[in-house]
Design goal:
This protein is α+β, with helices and mostly antiparallel strands. The protein has a domain of about 100 residues: GMP Synthetase, Chain A, domain 3 (2-Layer Sandwich). Strands 1-2-3 form a three-stranded mixed β-sheet. It is globular, with a radius of gyration of 18 Å. About 20% of the residues are buried.
């Protein structure tokens, strides 16, 4: 049990009381929108770039292609307690990819939730998502943002996941 008087940002709330204390201290953890973060486009990054760097960018996938590649990798990660991958389970709320201005490699941010705030496998799932960067060429980093608002429920599951769970 977490001491709600001294709750820390990296504590994972495990009860409604702890979640309320967490939100009061740190605010509701709502996903950021793309409009809140200004990242340069690939065209802006290319401006003034030498031929060698341009050739590197020409070989690498676009931001949208990288997003699709990350989603395919997310579909290979299964919830350790369920026979369904985390993407079809509806745990993934957003995948955003962009080109890092310095390294020219892709970075991605995965905004996701868990089936419950008390998920005992949360660290395993997050580590598996972060490890996608080790499996995809041109992907330097995957940042994972765990949110609990909106809360997960069965309506977020794909039809394939519902079928696998015997719900259809």
């Amino acid at each position: 049990m977490i001491d709600i008087e001294n709750i820390k940002i990296d504590d994972i709330p495990t009860s409604a009381e702890e979640l309320k204390a967490y939100e009061e201290k740190f605010g509701k953890n709502e996903p950021e929108t793309k409009s809140e973060i200004k990242r340069p486009s690939e065209a802006e990054i290319r401006e003034g770039m030498d031929a060698q760097k341009q050739a590197f960018l020409d070989k690498s996938p676009s931001d949208e292609e990288m997003k699709e590649m990350v989603i395919e990798e997310l579909k290979k990660i299964y919830d350790p307690e369920l026979p369904v991958n985390i993407y079809d389970l509806g745990l993934i709320y957003n995948v955003e990819c962009w080109t890092n201005e310095v390294s020219l490699m892709k970075w991605c941010k995965v905004t996701m939730t868990l089936t419950s705030a008390t998920c005992s496998m949360s660290e395993v799932i997050v580590d598996l998502v972060k490890s996608i960067s080790k499996r995809l060429e041109y992907l330097e980093n995957v940042d994972v943002d765990i949110v609990f608002n909106p809360p997960w429920d069965q309506s977020k599951m794909s039809d394939e996941a519902k079928l696998a769970m015997g719900m259809l």
